[in-house]
# Entry
Amino acid sequence: MCQEINLWTYWQGRDYAKKTPHIKYMLIGQDFGPPEKEEIKGTIANVRKMNDGVDVMFHENVDLEARDSQTDINIVRYFELIGKNEIDKKKYPDLFFCNCNLGYRRDKYSGNMTRKILANDAAEIKSLIDIIEPENIICMGLDTSVVVIRTLIDKEFSCNRVSELIGTGEPYIYGETYIYPVAHPGYWGTSTRGEDNVIADWRRIRK
# Structure
């Protein structure tokens, strides 16, 4: 079913290889939700339509106000802070979404994810980043950010608090790419960091 590197790429970044546009923002999430639950939400039906050549959005006819869509609706809101409005309704050629772990969950949307598991696809993610050469990488959540920084910059890097990881908001640097860790936009990540801090973190991302 998946004809891209990851099902999340159907949201933003699909067909990158055909046109190879300049990517301003690459968003790296943790992992994709259980496909059987995404089937119920409606995203998988839209993936199939895209594979069949139908021009639809990843969230077409998906209820973004539903509990299982909280992460996605928050991503839509936060991208507005860096000038990308209604990313659930519009495809941007300079956006690319992918997950750190390229596999798919079973049963639940959260829990039981470790840095060791996230690092399983580190070589593939690094190769993808080196091909795309994005201006900015936005990493969602503590563990995803640590794994990406270890993969690209410092294999010994360690951090156990998202507030310490983000610090003053200065980006980590990989070549000419700026890396911005942000709190995971789901309920727990947003609650732990605090909504005001999350908004401030996104506003510091280079435009």
